[in-house]
Design a protein that fits this description.
Structural class: mainly alpha
Radius of gyration: 22 Å
Helix content: over 70%
Largest sheet: none
Strand content: under 5%
Distance between the termini: 22 Å
Number of strands: 0
Shape: elongated
Order of helices and strands: HHHH
Length: about 150
């Protein structure tokens, strides 16, 4: 039997994702900052390291983003990777295999971050809801047998 239990008013079991423009602004600022930092510390001729760091940034941004923000987030990270992490700095180039692989890696990172966050939030929400149901069922059960 299904028993409807009222939830607290205004309670949201799953956090609302950030607005897409905010995620894209964070991707632009974060990618610029990270590529600048890597170029200053390590040098501009290390695109593999820059790809790894930007993939991590993309995954972290994906945790708070909507799925619809993923392509734009990956593209923004790729623009900074392509434009400033490989010589000549400030020039966008397209090497089909390399850049397609980079875009694939960045898009995969964003989607993995978003998917993982959704699964973890859904699991936590299920636990909160089932714990609330278990507590109300226990109280109902105690009340029926305590008489």
């Amino acid at each position: 039997m299904i028993e409807w239990v009222p939830l607290r008013p205004g309670a949201r079991p799953v956090p609302e994702p950030l607005a897409t423009p905010l995620v894209w602004a964070a991707a632009s600022c974060g990618a610029l900052l990270l590529v600048t930092l890597l170029n200053a510390v390590v040098g501009p001729a290390r695109p593999s390291l820059a790809l790894g760091v930007l993939s991590l940034l993309a995954a972290l941004l994906g945790v708070r983003a909507r799925f619809t923000a993923a392509p734009g987030t990956a593209a923004l990270c790729w623009l900074f990777l392509n434009g400033f992490a490989i010589p000549p700095a400030g020039t966008l180039t397209w090497a089909a295999h390399r850049d397609a692989f980079w875009l694939f890696c960045l898009l995969t990172a964003v989607l993995l971050g978003t998917t993982l966050a959704r699964l973890l939030h859904a699991r936590a929400a299920y636990r909160r809801l089932s714990a609330g149901l278990d507590a109300s069922m226990t109280e109902t059960h105690r009340g029926a047998h305590g008489r």
